[in-house]
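User: Here's a chain of 219 residues. Predict its fold as tokens.
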Amino acid sequence: MALIAVAESAREVAVGFNKFLDPVPEISTEITALMSECYAISSELQKLDNAKEDQRYYHDYNYIYTDVLCVRQSLECTFDDIIRLFGALGRPGHISRRAAYHQVWREIDSHFYQESGFPLCKRLEYNRLFLKQLNSILNDGRPLDLEDFYDLRDRTDEIFYGQESRLDSAFNHLSLIDPEVFRKEKATRTLHPSTGTPFLVPGRGTKARTRVTSVATWF
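Assistant: Prediction complete.
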């Protein structure tokens, strides 16, 4: 799925969550926060998608290729799960509208907490902040904050690895990147996109990065 398609899914999910506000007002704080994260993620993805059309950023995309692939695949899986769970609202039943929405909310909350150990809103927050770091690398040549960059990248990878069992079969049919290559790339994504020199993170040393030669078919 292309970046812009994932951005559209984020907006679709936000619209879906908006429908929970009336029947289940007691969770309005959580729902409003989720909607805000979805719209913000959509905006960050659109920035990345727009930048790929600019020849000035073509080579810089090579340096963040694996990071963007990871967060994009993870978000795609997350949004697909949410939309699938939304589907229960359209099934005929003998419970009230309020009860139906409340039940689906409990299923959503439970599903993502069991998968990653923290609420869905926290997962989306990590994804959004990591996307902001990647956009900063493109626009400014380095992350907004190096320590945060490494922490958010690790968290994003952990979320994605937690989803991998359902993605393995899909990866086998993709020519984008082999799963084993992805794992080897995890610790090699830290060269400065403009100078080619390593980012320095206090207390963590430097890491080399294997340059991806082309991203033309990725998008």
